C-alpha cells in the first residue's frame, strides 16, 4: 500500500512538472510570437503587414495588460489571504455572490440585446431547421435532405437542434411567431449557472475568502459577457462542464450512499454535456486518472463503475429514443453521416480549423465507410507531406492559434448585427476601439496561461496532491484533445471555469511566494 501511494505521488509530481513545462512554453510562444504575428498581420491572419509603430504598440499593450492584471490579482489574493478585506468590510459571502451574479446577469442581458445578430454558420443552419420542423410539425426535413443533409452529416448537433426546436415550439404556440429572445435568455442563464457553480466549487476547495478571487475572475472575464447573444453549444454546455466536476468533487469528499448518488449524478451531468458538446468526453479520462493517482486501482474501479454506469445508461437511452423515433433513418445515416476521421483530418490542415475544402472532400464520398477510408488515406498523405518536423511545427502553430485569442473569436460571430451600437466599435474587428478590447482580453488570456503554469510548478515543487490536480488534468486533456482534433479559438470556452479555478490556486500561491520572500528579507 505504501509503495503504491509513493508511486502515485511520483506520478502526480511528474504530471505537474509536465503541465508546467507545457504551459510555460505555450505562454512564451503566445506572448513572444503569437501576438507579434497578430499585430503584424491582423487577427484574421489575412491583413497586410502593419506599420512597425502600430505593431509595437499593439504588442506592448497586450503585455502591459498582462502585467497589470497579474499585479492586481496577486494584490487581491494577498489581501484575501491575510483577511484584510474582511476586517475592513466584512462582506457576507452569500450576499456578495448573489449581488455579483445579479450584476453579471443584468450586464449580460444588456449585451445580448444590444449585440443581437442574425445567426451565421452552424447556428444559422440549426435556426432554419428548427423553424421548419415547428412549422411543418414534422422531422421530415431531416430525412428529406434539407440543407444538404446537414444534421445527418453532423449528428453531434442533433441535441442542440432539439433544444432550439423546443424553444421555438413554445414561442410559436404562445405568440404564433418565432422569437430568439427565450433561447438567448437560456444561453445567458447557462453562463450564469456555470459562474455560480464555479464560485461554489472554489469555496468548497479554497474557502470563502479565497473563493472571492474566483468571483472576481468571473466578473472580469470578458467572454462571459460577449457570448451572451451567441447561443451555441459552447455556452449551452458550460454549466455541465463545471457541474460534472462539482458533483465529482462532492462525491470524493462524501461517503456511503451520498457518495454513490453524487457519482451517478456526475455521470448523468457529464453525459448530457457530452451530447451537447463532444469535448466534454475529456472529463471521463480526467476523473479516472485522478482516481488512480489518489486512491489506487481498487477504489478507482469502484467509483469509476458508478459514474460510468449512469453515463452509459443515459447515453444508450438517448440513442434508443432517437432510433425509435426514426428522426434519422439508418439508411440515410449510413449514406451521409461523417465519420470521426473527418475531424481528425481537419485537425491536420494549416491551423486545424474547419475549411470548406475539407468539408467538400468528405461530402463527395457516398457512404460512411467510403468517407472513413478516404479520410484515413488523406490523413496518411498529410502526415507524409509534413514529415516529423513539419508535424511538430504544425502542432505548435495549432496550440498557439487555439489558446492565444482572449476574445475566443467572438467578433467573427457578431458581424451580422441587426442594429449597430457603441459596443460594436469595441468588439468588431473594424471597430475604432477594438484594439483596447483585444489588448485587455488577450492580456487576461496571457495571465491565465502563465498563472496555470505557475500553479503546476508550485504543486510540483511542494509535492501537492489535492483536488486542484484534477482541474489541471482536465485542462491538460483538453489541450491534448485539440492538438489532434479540429480546433478553433472558441472551442476551449466551455472549459474556462476550470481555467479560472486553476488560476485561483496559482494566484494564491504567487501571493504566498511574495509574502514569504518579504518575510525572509525582513529577517
Automatic annotation (TrEMBL):
This is Glycosyltransferase family 39 protein. The chain crosses the membrane at residues 20-41, 61-80, 92-115, 181-201, 213-230, 236-253, 260-293, 305-325, 437-455, 467-485. One of its GO terms (cellular component) is plasma membrane. Its main location: membrane. GO terms for biological process: lipopolysaccharide biosynthetic process. It comes from the Bacteria. It is found in: Cell membrane. It is a multi-pass membrane protein. PANTHER family: MANNOSYLTRANSFERASE YKCB-RELATED (PTHR33908), MEMBRANE PROTEIN (PTHR33908:SF11). Keywords: Cell membrane, Glycosyltransferase, Membrane, Transferase, Transmembrane, Transmembrane helix. It holds the Pfam family PMT_2. InterPro entries: LipidA_mod_glycosyltrf_83, RgtA/B/C-like. Coiled coil: none annotated. GO terms for molecular function: pentosyltransferase activity. Residues 165-316 form the Glycosyltransferase RgtA/B/C/D-like domain.
Amino acid at each position: 500500500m505504501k509503495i503504491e501511494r509513493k508511486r502515485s505521488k511520483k506520478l502526480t509530481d511528474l504530471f505537474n512538472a509536465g503541465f508546467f513545462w507545457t504551459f510555460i512554453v505555450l505562454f512564451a510562444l503566445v506572448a513572444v510570437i503569437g501576438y507579434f504575428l497578430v499585430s503584424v498581420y491582423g487577427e484574421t491572419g489575412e491583413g497586410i503587414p502593419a506599420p512597425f509603430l502600430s505593431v509595437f504598440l499593439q504588442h506592448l499593450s497586450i503585455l502591459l495588460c498582462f502585467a497589470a492584471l497579474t499585479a492586481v490579482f496577486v494584490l487581491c489574493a494577498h489581501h484575501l489571504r491575510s483577511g484584510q478585506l474582511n476586517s475592513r468590510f466584512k462582506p457576507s459571502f452569500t450576499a456578495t455572490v448573489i449581488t455579483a451574479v445579479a450584476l453579471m446577469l443584468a450586464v449580460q442581458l444588456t449585451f445580448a440585446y444590444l449585440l443581437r445578430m442574425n445567426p451565421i454558420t452552424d447556428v444559422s443552419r440549426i435556426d432554419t431547421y428548427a423553424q421548419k420542423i415547428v412549422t411543418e410539425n414534422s422531422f421530415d426535413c431531416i430525412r428529406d435532405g434539407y440543407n444538404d443533409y446537414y444534421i445527418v452529416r453532423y449528428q453531434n448537433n442533433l441535441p442542440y437542434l432539439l433544444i432550439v426546436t423546443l424553444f421555438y415550439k413554445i414561442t410559436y404556440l404562445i405568440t404564433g411567431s418565432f422569437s430568439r429572445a427565450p433561447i438567448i435568455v437560456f444561453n445567458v442563464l447557462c453562463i450564469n449557472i456555470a459562474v455560480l457553480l464555479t464560485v461554489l466549487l472554489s469555496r468548497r476547495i479554497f474557502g470563502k475568502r479565497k473563493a472571492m478571487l474566483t468571483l472576481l475572475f468571473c466578473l472580469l472575464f470578458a467572454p462571459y459577457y460577449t457570448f451572451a447573444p451567441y447561443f451555441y453549444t459552447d455556452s449551452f454546455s458550460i454549466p455541465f462542464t463545471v457541474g460534472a466536476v462539482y458533483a465529482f468533487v462532492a462525491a470524493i469528499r462524501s461517503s456511503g450512499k451520498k457518495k454513490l448518488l453524487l457519482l451517478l449524478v456526475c455521470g448523468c451531468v457529464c453525459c448530457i454535456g457530452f451530447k451537447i458538446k463532444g469535448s466534454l468526453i475529456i472529463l471521463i479520462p480526467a476523473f479516472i486518472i485522478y482516481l488512480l493517482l489518489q486512491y489506487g486501482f481498487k477504489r478507482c474501479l469502484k467509483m469509476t463503475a458508478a459514474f460510468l454506469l449512469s453515463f452509459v445508461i443515459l447515453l444508450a437511452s438517448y440513442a434508443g429514443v432517437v432510433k425509435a423515433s426514426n428522426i434519422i433513418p439508418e439508411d440515410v445515416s449510413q449514406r451521409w453521416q461523417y465519420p470521426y476521421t473527418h475531424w481528425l483530418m481537419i485537425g491536420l490542415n494549416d491551423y486545424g480549423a474547419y475549411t470548406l475544402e475539407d468539408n467538400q472532400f468528405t461530402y463527395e464520398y457516398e457512404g460512411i465507410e467510403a468517407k472513413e477510408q478516404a479520410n484515413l488515406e488523406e490523413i496518411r498523405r498529410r502526415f507524409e507531406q509534413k514529415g516529423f518536423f513539419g508535424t511538430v511545427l504544425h502542432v505548435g502553430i495549432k496550440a498557439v492559434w487555439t489558446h492565444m485569442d482572449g476574445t475566443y473569436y467572438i467578433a467573427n460571430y457578431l458581424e451580422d448585427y441587426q442594429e449597430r451600437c457603441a459596443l460594436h466599435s469595441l468588439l468588431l474587428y473594424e471597430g475604432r476601439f477594438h484594439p483596447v478590447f483585444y489588448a485587455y482580453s488577450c492580456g487576461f488570456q496571457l495571465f491565465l496561461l502563465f498563472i496555470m503554469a505557475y500553479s503546476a510548478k508550485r504543486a510540483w515543487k511542494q509535492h501537492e496532491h489535492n483536488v486542484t490536480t484534477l482541474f489541471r488534468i482536465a485542462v491538460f486533456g483538453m489541450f491534448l484533445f485539440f492538438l489532434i482534433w479540429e480546433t478553433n479559438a472558441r472551442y476551449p470556452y466551455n472549459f474556462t471555469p476550470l481555467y479560472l479555478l486553476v488560476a485561483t490556486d496559482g494566484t494564491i500561491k504567487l501571493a504566498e511566494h511574495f509574502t514569504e520572500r518579504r518575510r525572509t528579507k525582513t529577517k
